[in-house]
Amino acid sequence: MAQHLFQRRPNHSYPVIQRGQGPYLFDQDGNKYFDAVGGAGVACLGHGLKEMGTTLGHFIQDSGYLHGMQFTSKVIEEYSDELMAHAPIGLSKIQFMGSGSEAIEAALKLAYQFFLSKYGNHRKNKFLYTRPGYHGSTLLALSISGKARDQESYQSLLQEHPSIPLPACQRCPYQLQRESCDLHCTRELEKAILHHGPENLAAYVIEPIGGASSGVAILPDDYLRKAKEICARHDLLLIFDEVMCGYGRSGKWFACDHYGISPDILTLGKGMAGGLFPLAGLLCSEEVYQTVVDKQGSFKHGHTFTNHLLAIKAAQLVYRTIVQEDLLSNVQDRGTQLAEGLHALKARNPLIGEVRGKGLLLAFDLVMDGQPGKFFPRSFQMAEKVVGTAMKEGLNLYFSTEFKANREGDAILIMPPYNLTKAQAEELIDRLERVLAKVCQDHNNEAEKSI
Predict the structure, then answer these.
(1) pLDDT at residue 451 above 70?
(2) Cβ atoms within 10 A of the Cβ of 324, count?
(3) Cis peptide, bond prior to residue 377, ω within 30 of zero
(4) From the CB of residue 347, how many other CB atoms can be counted at a distance below 10 Å?
(5) 3-class state of residue 434 by DSSP
(6) What is the arrangement of strands in the sheet containing 398-401, beginning at the earlier edge strand?
(7) Rounded to 5°, angle at Cα 64 from 62 and 70
(8) Which of 40, 201, 301, 311 fits as disulfide partner to 279, beta carbons 3.0 to 4.6 Å?
(9) How far is residue 74 CA from its own chain's centroid?
C-alpha cells in the first residue's frame, strides 16, 4: 500500500492496474475487469489507445504549455471549430478548462457577469437548481447541487440558492401521471421563479439527462422547451449541465439535441479527451459572449490550464475518431442492445426495477420483490453490495443512491465505451446477470437467517 498517496477511499484495497485494452483492465495479479462504466463515463474509447498515445507522444516533443492570455495554436482553434459545428443552434463560443466542476463554476460566473454587464447592478445573483442534481465539487457549483449527502460536510461554507424538485416522471414529485398532468412541473418552475423574484435570479441550471445523482432521470419530452420559454419570459438564462450526458454519450453530440432545445450556456466534460487528459468545456451564445465583452472587456475568469494545448490535442484525436468511425451510430445501436438486455434480465431477476436512459448512458433501479419504486431501506446499502460483488466478479459498475426525497433509492449505471462491440455488450449482460443472481441469493440467505 502506498504510504503517501491521499486516496479518495482511504481504507479501501484498490486493484493495481497495469494495462488496459478496449473495455478491459488488467491488474498486477493477473485479474481481468470488464470496465462497464469507463470510470465515471470518462473512458469513452476504452483503454489501451496505443495509436493515440503514439500521436500524443510525438506532439508533446514539439509542443508544450501555452498560457491562455499569451498564445494560441492551430490545434486549439481547429478543434474549437470542429466541435462547434455540432453545437446546438445559437451557441457560438467555447472555452476549455480542466474539469466539469470548473466548467459549471465558470458557467455560473458567466451568467452573473452577463446580467452585471446588461443592467450594471449585482442584483441577479441567485441560481435555481433541481433536487436531486449534481453540478460539481467547487463551492459555488456545490451550492447548487441538490444532494444532501454531497453538501452536508460543507454546509457552513455554501451559499443559499433556491431549488425545485427534479421533474422526473418515473418518480413524479407531485404524484401525478404524465398522461393527465399537463406538465404541472413547468407550472411549479414558473411559480418558483415568481416566488424568489426574477429580478434576483440569473439562471436555471439543469441536466437534460440525469447523471449519477438522480440515477439517470429522464425528463418529460416537452419540459425543456417550456422551461426555455419560461426562463426567457422572466429574464433568466438557461444553463444545461451536460458534463456526464453530453459529448456523444446519449447517442447525439449534445443531450439537448434529443429535445431540439438550445440553452444559453452549456457545459461538457467527462469523456471529451477520453480520460487521457482532464478536459471540460463551456459553451455560450453570441449574445452572452458579446454582452460581456462589450461591457467588461472580457470574461473575468480564468485558470492556469484554461485552453490547455495538450488536453485539447487529445480531445481532437478523440473527436476525430468518433466522427471517422461513426461511433454515435454505434452508441445508439449498442444502447438499444443493452437496454433490451436489461429488460430481459428484469424478467428473470426481482432486483431490477425500472430500466431507463439514452444511448450508452443507462441505469436500472434496485428494488424489492421486483416491484417498481419499492426501494430498499438505505441501511441495506444494496447498490454498494451490487458494485462490490461485481468488482469481485471482474465487472466494474457505478451506482447512484439517495435520489428520493427520503434519501432512499438505489440504481446501477452502465456507461461503456462508444466503440463497444455487439459481442462485448452480450458479455456485459451475461456478467451482470451472474452478479445480480449472486446478490439476490445472498440477500435471500440473509433474510432467512433473520427469521
Answers:
(1) no
(2) 8
(3) no
(4) 9
(5) helix
(6) 352-358, 361-366, 410-414, 398-401
(7) 120
(8) 311
(9) 29
Angle at 314 between CA 311 and CA 316, to 5 degrees: 110
Strands (E), 11-90: 17-21, 24-27, 32-35
Cell match 449585482: residue? Answer: 122
Residue 201's DSSP bridge partners are 126
Listed in sequence order, the residues at least 6 apart from 379 whose beta carbon sits closer than 8 Å to its beta carbon are none
CA-wise closest residue to 164 among 196, 198, 136: 196
- CA triplet 314, 277, 308: central angle to 5 degrees? 75
Torsion sign, CA atoms 434, 440, 444, 449: positive
All residues at 6 or more sequence positions from 3 whose CB lies less than 8 Å from its CB, including other chains = none
User: Is 142 strand, coil or helix?
Assistant: helix
Q: How far is CA 309 from CA 12, 101, 257, 318, 341, in A?
A: 35, 20, 28, 14, 41
Helix, strand or coil for residue 252? coil
Q: According to the model, what pLDDT value does residue 11 have?
A: 86
pLDDT of amino acid 448: 75
Instruction: Give the chain as a 3 state SS string.
Output: CCCCCCCCCCCCCCCCEEEEEECEEEECCCCEEEECCHHHHCCCCCECCHHHHHHHHHHHHHCCCCCCCCCCCHHHHHHHHHHHCCCCCCEEEEEEECCHHHHHHHHHHHHHHHHHHHHCCCCCCEEEEEECCCCCCCHHHHHCCCCHHHHHHHHHHCCCCCEEECCCHHHCCCCCCHHHHCCHHHHHHHHHHHHHCCCCEEEEEECCECCCCCCCCECCCCHHHHHHHHHHHCCCEEEEECCCCCCCCCCCCCHHHHCCCCCCEEEECHHHHCCCCCCEEEEEEHHHHHHHHHHHCCCCCCCCCCCCHHHHHHHHHHHHHHHHCCHHHHHHHHHHHHHHHHHHHHCCCCCEEEEEEECCEEEEEEECCCCCCCECCHHHCHHHHHHHHHHHCCEECEEEECCCCCCCCEEEEECCCCCCCHHHHHHHHHHHHHHHHHHHHHHHHHHHHHC
pLDDT above 90 covers a percentage of the chain that reads: 92
Q: Tell me the pTM.
A: 0.97
Which pLDDT score is estimated for 447?
76
Looking at this protein, which amino acid is placed at residue 335?
Answer: G
